[in-house]
Design a protein that fits this description.
Elements: E1 4-7, H1 10-17, E2 28-32, E3 46-49, E4 52-57, E5 64-66, E6 69-71, E7 77-81, E8 87-89, E9 101-106, H2 119-123, E10 134-136, H3 139-158, H4 163-181, H5 194-209, H6 216-223, H7 227-238, H8 242-260, H9 265-271, H10 277-288, H11 292-298
Parallel strand pairs: 1-3
Antiparallel strand pairs: 2-9, 3-8, 4-7, 4-9, 5-6, 5-8, 7-10
Helix pairs in contact: 3-4, 5-7, 6-7, 9-10
Length: 299
């Protein structure tokens, strides 16, 4: 069975990789790639973390997946990853002491982002589990973002009485510039109608709780709505059934586990809280058109 590393603290990540970077705060870290030790990068494999991660790759970044999304292995890449997303690193041959870029980790409480409140994550779509967390940059854009991070790092290193607030403001500038550069697949975030708000909240709740909440009624109860009203609203906004969205989210997670870990089909079924692995295989084939084993071979 594959080991999925769980990093609850930023320091857990630093120790596991033996990065040789100084963590001056328990809730925030920024470091220059050129000053980090990448010798043990292959220890990462598959992992989740309880904090945000931002990487600005100036030289070519490593091959990686975040949930069901494959991140392009390119230069000038910005990745913005919210807590609890499933990450898998592939080839690390490019990761060496000469690589250039910046890494940042910070806990939700550092920027007062409450995971129970989806407003922040909807404001910045790259942090949503529904979207790929990557932006391809041109040379001018990489220079601009690198300058923001260098100024932020200066405050981190100097640790003046106002450094924390200055860092938070630079982070907000970085988020806004990233939002400006990000190409969202739809404009759903601009729609503030009541039906759209219900739909957005439903999608966010599904992303957070699809392993334990698997019925429309369970989500309707969480949202203090009737199952009928929730189903009709979701259908009206998206054209999809609420149960279809729940099942598709389960399927995407199953595909991520099959693609990114050596878990057996039986282990994947249990990871998704299916009591019967045979039913899981039927469920997977009904939604995807192929069995879990066929999907793994085709990948």
């Amino acid at each position: 069975m594959s080991q999925i590393n769980i990093f609850r603290e930023i320091d857990d990540y630093i120790r596991t990789l033996d990065l040789n970077v100084e963590a001056k705060r328990s809730d925030f870290l920024v470091f220059d790639y050129e000053h980090a030790n990448w010798e043990h990068y292959d220890r990462l494999s598959t992992y989740r973390q309880h904090y945000f991660e931002i990487n600005l790759d100036i030289t070519k970044g490593c091959d990686s997946h975040v949930d069901q999304f494959e991140l392009p292995t390119i230069t000038n890449r910005l990745t913005l990853i919210s807590p609890h997303r499933l990450q898998t690193t592939g080839s690390h041959e490019e990761m060496e002491n000469a690589c250039k870029g910046y890494g940042m980790f910070f806990k939700p409480e550092f920027i007062h982002a409450n995971p129970a409140n989806n407003t922040f994550l909807k404001d910045f779509p790259f942090f949503s589990h529904l979207n790929p967390p990557v932006i391809s940059l041109n040379n001018d854009e990489i220079d601009l973002l690198a300058d923001i991070i260098r100024k932020l790092k200066y405050e981190y290193d100097t640790r003046s009485v106002f450094s924390k607030e200055i860092i938070k403001n630079y982070l907000n500038i970085l988020f806004l510039k990233a939002k400006e550069l990000y190409s969202s697949p739809s404009n759903r975030y601009k729609n503030t109608s009541r039906n759209q708000q219900i739909y957005d909240e439903f999608r966010w709740l599904v992303q957070q709780h699809f392993l334990e909440l698997t019925s429309v009624r369970a989500y309707a109860d969480e949202m203090h709505l009737t199952p009928k009203y929730l189903s009709e609203t979701v259908k009206d906004v998206s054209g999809q059934g609420a149960l279809d969205i729940i099942h598709q989210t389960q399927l995407n997670h199953a595909k991520a586990l099959l693609r990114q870990t050596p878990k057996t089909v039986k282990e994947v079924a249990y990871a998704l809280n299916f009591d019967n692995p045979e039913y899981f295989s039927v469920f997977f084939k009904r939604l995807s058109g192929e069995s879990p084993s066929q999907f793994r071979i085709s990948e």
